[in-house]
Amino acid sequence: MLLLIWKVRNKLVFDNKQPSLWRVLCSIKSWVHFAAPYFPGSSKGLLDVNILKEFGVQPIIQQVRIPRMVRWLSPTHSWIKLNTNGLAKGNPGAAACGGIFRISGGRYIGGYCQNLGFQNAFYSELMAVIIGVEFAYQFGWHTLWLECDSMGVIEGLRSSTFKPPWPLRVHWHNCLSRLNSMQFYCSHIHREGNSVADCLANLGLAFLSLCWLPTPPMEIFSKLRNDALGVLHYR
């Protein structure tokens, strides 16, 4: 198309030959109609749609993505909620995990984090659950609502045929044994609603061993408050 315009311009400048605007427009429309299927893209508004239709091109309407609202939900009075998260910087890479226990109203009753060395993200997610369940069992918290942002972990907890990574086989079976003695429920939450556990997992990178946190570290104060207030996050 640019080549066509350049040729018409040269004829006007060097040959003093007036172009036929109608023929130029027809040529441009033909070129656009031929080339359009080979170029990705989509129309973003009514003006784009009308221009494309003038060139004989069927517009592809851009899909509008509707933001999804995500909110952390507080447990009822009889339940203790455990949110967990694991990470690996590089997957595999420097790995850590963390978790937080809260009761009704979002009140903090404990948390933990641990450096896991060089691992992948799924290993870290599983370890976060294993450690959290063990803490709950030791403290006698036997009405446990577990929530994390890994669908793989949730499916593993719900499946009778799930096989964890070999180094975690014994730990995982012990974890399931603990859960069988509890009133237990698990659910998935999007990452935007799991920010406190994510923050604790990042803190775990700085620790050499498992660390129990009886009081909330200052890094999670604002996130704890937002969760307790039911602040919405958008995905």
Automatic annotation (TrEMBL):
Pfam family membership, one: RVT_3
GO molecular function: nucleic acid binding; RNA-DNA hybrid ribonuclease activity
Annotated RNase H type-1 domain residues: 83-203
Origin: domain of life: Eukaryota
PANTHER family named among the record's database cross-references: OS05G0353850 PROTEIN, POLYNUCLEOTIDYL TRANSFERASE, RIBONUCLEASE H-LIKE SUPERFAMILY PROTEIN
Protein name as it appears in the record: Putative ribonuclease H-like domain-containing protein
Organism expressing this protein natively: Rosa chinensis
